[in-house]
Amino acid sequence: MADLKYKRVLLKLSGEALGGENGFGIDVSAAEAIATRIRGVYEMGVQVGVVTGAGNLWRGRQGLDRGMDRATADYMGMLGTVMNSLVLMDALERQKVLTRVMSAIEMRALAEPYIRRRAIRHFEKGRVVIFSAGTGNPYFSTDTAAALRGTEVAVDVLIKATKVDGVYDADPKKHPDARKFVELTYADFISRRLGVMDATAVTLCMENSLPILVLNLWDEHALFRALEGEAVGTLIHG
Fold it and tell me: Class of 8-237 per CATH?
């Protein structure tokens, strides 16, 4: 533990990461693969929090394009994050990792209500904490929820897990000559409108000096190397 750069982290996962190859629905094997990554970090002695999106289950844009109320669409997305959190919890606990799901919307039969001090206590007792239901409020993304929870429970870094090895100035899949950034300031990230994370989330991290690390979760070694202090992915900081 003493040799690690980050000792308490929050991992932000997209919902699509739990959707397998097509990005839709819930793929239990994908959840198990993510749980294996998290278990490796957990076994290093790192305290781990997780926030998931819900894009694999519900895309609010579909409803909004048909005139759905924005708040209703957002609440449906929050419920989707609870489903994703439960499948990830199950995958972790089958790998003998103590896990708690906390929800910003009260549903005691499924998850603990989010209480900041209780979440910190879970970390101190060696449990992985999955924060679900976003912030509990419409109009905020799960990226912003991750920035908020990460700030509240005093993580050392917010890790944005993607399928790309960092932040580029263009989509590297469409533009082979796209340039990768090793480091960015918060202001540069926002001014360039890079789109990897929403501006509200980045602004919240900037105001609270919470660094953001964007890396490829599917690279077998990237996450572990980053925790040991190697330059991996793109670091967004002050």
Answer: alpha beta
